[in-house]
Amino acid sequence: MSAPLVRRELRARPGRLTLVLATVVVSVGFCVGAFGFSQRVEALIAPPTVGIDEQLPEGTVVLTANTNSITTPTALDSSLLAKLRKVDGVAQAGANYDQPLEFVVPAGTQTNRPPVLRGVVLSSTSDTRVWKLVAGRFPNGPGEVAVDAGGGVVGEVRLGERAPLQFPTTTIDVEVVGVVQPAASSASLAGMNDPAAVALASAHVILDPQWAPMLLDAVGRSDRLTAIPVPGVDPDVLAARIRRAMPPGISVLAATSRAAQTQHTIASIDDDVRTATIAYAGLTMLVAVLVIANSYSVLVAQRTRELGLLRLIGASRSQVARAVVGESVVVGLTGAALGGGLGVLLAYLASRIVRTTGVQVGFSVTPAMAVVAVVVGVTTSVIGSSWPAWRASRVPPIEALSDTRGGADRPSRGFIPLAFTVAGLGAAAWLASRPGAFDAGRLALIGGAILVGFVGLALLSRWIVVPFTRLVRRPLELLVGVSARLGVGNTARQPSRTAGAASTLMVGLALVSTVGTFGASSRQAIAAQVGAAGRADLYFERRGVVRVSTTSIDQIIHYAERGIADSVEITEVDGLVLGRHGATTAAVASDPVAAGRIIDLGRVQGTAGDGTAMLSADTAKLLGVRVGGTVTLRSVSGETRKLTVSATYTNTAILGPAVVPWHVARQISADGTFDLAAMRLNPRAPPDLVQRFLKRELRHLPKVSVETPEAFAAFSTSVADTTLRIIFVLLIGALGIGVLGLASTLALSTLERRRELVLLRAVGASRAQVRGLVWLEATMIGVIAAVVGIGTGTAIGRVGVAFAPGTLGGFPVIPWLDLAGVAVGSVVTAWAVSIGVARRASRVPPAEAGRI
Questions:
Q1: How far apart (Å, rounded) are the C-alpha atoms in residues 332 and 330?
Q2: Exposed, middle or buried, 508 (CB in 10 Å: 0-12/13-18/19+)?
Q3: Per-residue buried b or exposed e for 371-389, using 16+ beta carbons within 10 Å of the residue's own CB
Q4: E-strand spans in 495-638?
Q5: Handedness of CA 68, 69, 72, 73 (dihedral sign)
Q6: φ and ψ at residue 533, rounded to 5 degrees
Q7: Other residues' Cβ atoms within 10 Å of the Cβ of residue 64
Q8: Is residue 194 exposed (0-12), middle (13-18) or buried (19+ Cβ within 10 Å)?
Q9: pLDDT digit string, tens, across residues 199-250
């Protein structure tokens, strides 16, 4: 019986379901467009068919360092290779490098390739098990290299040519003496001549294995270990054995896993793109679900008498519910088809827009985009219709005798939205208050919990509708007249419907105000902490994905010792710091004594000492240690050193949450890439002269810049600004769907009141008065959405700032002017979307009153 009901409703009410369909189409379009664009960006990093997987012999087991660094960590020491060779079932084991290096290409070239990837290639050594010669020979000495086809294109070099290549230690003019291709594949990029078409994973430079460790500042270390199993041993079984023999900081995967086939830098960038895409799709789907739920609630309310009649003639509750859900499935599939086409168009436009900014990502339609369209369309439609379907199944048969559509006025119970609010915001507060690092996973959980709380608040907002209308009714009546009385009355008569119309826009505005408050507070905190750390006169800062040797930086500073009075270098740590109650991977290696002299650490307890560790106050609580206690520094390879905690501090903008001695990290291969250096100049040395000298010395390390404190602070805050702009762009989609939801709900509710509008026209109401009624109602919905959404979001943002770690937290800053502009814009938008609805409502003929 459910199928005929679905067909009948689809034929009877196509116009009203079109409003729901529009929401599904837009949500599917945004999700498919984002997914299609991200796929092209991922292809620019690691193409699906040509990449590092072709270099691995069949059955290879791969060991890599498991770190949070975006740059490939050279953190596997030689002791692990000896241990790997002793594992039962390993026939051969070797070490290799795959960290990024960079050919210094001429200025103004490769403008259609992302700046961070210009000239960047992955390093390897001349191993005949991995590479086979196509022309020339393998390199012999520090000044010779070979390239594969992609490396030659990106480096703009050919066989026999010379070009500057940046290593972590210096830049060397190298000669290309050979051209290679993967030994395990016959694939080649020989016909490709455009750097924009070469993915990072497809460009390699091959080094002499005798010189590679020194050039890469990796003596006794490697980026990747590989093990080939004895014939007959399953790679997955061997991987399990190796995993048991290795320390916990090692990732061990068989080559059958794509994660094992992907170089660390590629995987890090790839994961960031994928995470952002999933977050955007999730946000879009949630707002779309709210819109569909509101729309179906109004549709179900309009059909109360019909549903009661179905129940009266024998339809069961489950049949009624299945009929509503069946409609949603058809709408979802239709929306998937139409939205898929919209998504393809959006992905194409995004690729064209990005291409004009200098990034070539290409465009193609993939089967995965079709899958995303179907999943998003059906999922949002079915989930959004579930609650209205349940309510439809609860319509009693007696409603068949009613002509009042009482179901339309039946409010939902308040305990459900209250439970959503308490559970969501309570979970967010609990997650934020727990000790530990605010990594991507934890922030995602907090964001999801806040979103759930916002949904509950949006549903609870119906309780403020009546008090609000009482407050504004009299002034509006004096200004507008009878239209105000009717519009305010309609708004207050059905608080649930009013709150439902405002809810989707409300959630979007709450998210915008939360992010705006948190972002403004974080930006000010970063600027204040960087400014407070201004004891330095100059900074070195690494940019890009190429590792930089701290030893090389130290030598450059030593050359300028007459102009530099004091300095401190800060290096990433490839490992973790463990305490009694926890651990943190967010540590740096430096000289704690020099850091205390040059960098303002805020409130400090204790005194920095040689060979000791320093922790931020929050990290000390996380690890369960105090000044005078001990922590353990553990490298990725499993070596450890005990360190005494000599001091705690509060200003984490420069050093982050934990500092360990650089020479100790170096001893156990836990020192990563150089990140930052702060220098105090000799009072007698001219700053401009010292800066020019340092820039000249850094010409061999082009990815390290020399900056004044002002430029350094500006760059630090610009990173936060860029992140916020990206987030706000993502929220525009949610706001767009929220506005569409407002238009849909307003149009459906106006259709529901057609009888009322006819009677108004029959008793003398003019078209202008009817239009004013709808305009005023929509404007009040916009005001309610703005007040509740922005007010709640601001409050949540203030609480979030209080719970945030020191680098991001601080004194709450509310961007009142920006939020006021958003509020005014939301009210104007609500009025604007009502124009078409109001025009249609005003054209209701009074003659229809006789047929009611």
A1: 5
A2: buried
A3: ebbbbbbbbbbbbbbbbbb
A4: 538-542, 564-573, 575-578, 583-584, 588-590, 605-606, 613-616, 630-635
A5: negative
A6: -85, 20
A7: 26
A8: exposed
A9: 777 889 999 999 999 999 988 888 888 888 888 888 888 888 998 888 887 8
